[in-house]
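Our preliminary data section would be incomplete without showing what the modeling component actually yields. Below, a chain of 293 amino acids is followed by its predicted structure, encoded as tokens that our downstream tools consume directly.
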Amino acid sequence: MILIADSGSTKCSWALCDQNGILIKEFRTIGFNPYFIDKKNILKELEQSNLTEYSKEIREVFFYGAGCSSKDKNNIIEESLQSFFINSKIVIKHDIDAACYAMYKGNPNITCILGTGSNSCFYDGESIVENAPSLGFLLGDEASGNYFGKKILTLYFNNLMPEELKIKFDSGFETDLTIIKENIYNNNRSNVYLSKYFPFISENKNHPIIQDLIFNSLNDFFNLHVCCYENYKDLEINFIGSVGYFLSDEINTVAKKHNCKIGGIVKNPINNLIDFHFNKIKPFTNKASILSS
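Predicted structure:
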């Protein structure tokens, strides 16, 4: 059996397939971003998951993850998975690779991630080119879930939020600053914590102040991470991630402003990844070298 995983910082989707690409079962765990989780906790999560039942039967694991952008970080994931899936060959790739493979339809494109974090790249069908490194949730991640979390907390605690929104926020979200600071500054998953405030943005996106926040943030993302590519107006722009999915109307509006063409917006690429592995590259056992960008 073959296991394909797509992991952000918040959650990881796992697809267990047979040798012919038939989906046997899907699983869900927390996200394994090596910047925010160590080997001990990865193994703990895996041992508590339903994957345990299949751990010895799986022969190949293809893991695409946020934060898997260097040998040292990849090793954290690889060694953990190898300890759990003891009979498997393990391949670790970045989540931007998964996004590109999942959204590629035969033409060069710009593929973007808008989830807990954000990123973009140009993909021509063979090579992935990132214009700049992802700066993470402290310095970058424009228009991501954690970015919107920071923005909404800023509005709330600086008394810039209209009263009707403040009442909604008080009733549904943590507003004790001591608790919030504890979860941000003494938590190894701070970006995930901040992204938990994104639903407030999505639920109230028609309110003028939230609408302005959304459009300003998406404009920043386009200016920094889309318009930086040569001939971006001639390329389709694809988006993957829950934030992109829930803000698809707003993305289309901002794209028109920048004379961009939106290709697809997908919440979860795992099914597209299955198609990529089993339908676009054959035989499957030769994929590892092809997947190396």
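The chain has two domains: 2-99+269-291, 104-266. Residues 2-99+269-291 form a domain with the Nucleotidyltransferase; domain 5 fold (CATH 3.30.420.40). Preliminary results of this kind motivate Aim 1 of the renewal.
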